[in-house]
Here is the input.
Amino acid sequence: MKKLIDLMRGNLMNNFYCVFEYGSAIYGVGKTKESAIKNAKEYLSNDSYIPDFCGYNMTYGNVYVIRCSKRLYDKVIINGGIIGYDIYCNTLYTLEELDAMDEWID
Here is the structure.
């Protein structure tokens, strides 16, 4: 349980954001919302409005900006945005992180 708390605390203390298409790819990452959006504009039209992810009434295929874990941020920088991810507590995590969380919770 301590590892889970440390992981969550670390993600809350670090500000990393990503722009992602719900149910698809991650288009950009940054240390601020603005830098993540700027990074994503390379793949999206410049006039696209990108709302904050609010955790409800999300539509597959829509693009949102959301807080992400440092591990997800690093993985996108290294490998690009086609990676496995999911949302937990309004933060985007890699699937590996979520699997580890499940083990810590059990």
Observations:
- Residues 2-105 form one domain.
- The mean pLDDT is 86.
- The longest strand covers residues 63-68.
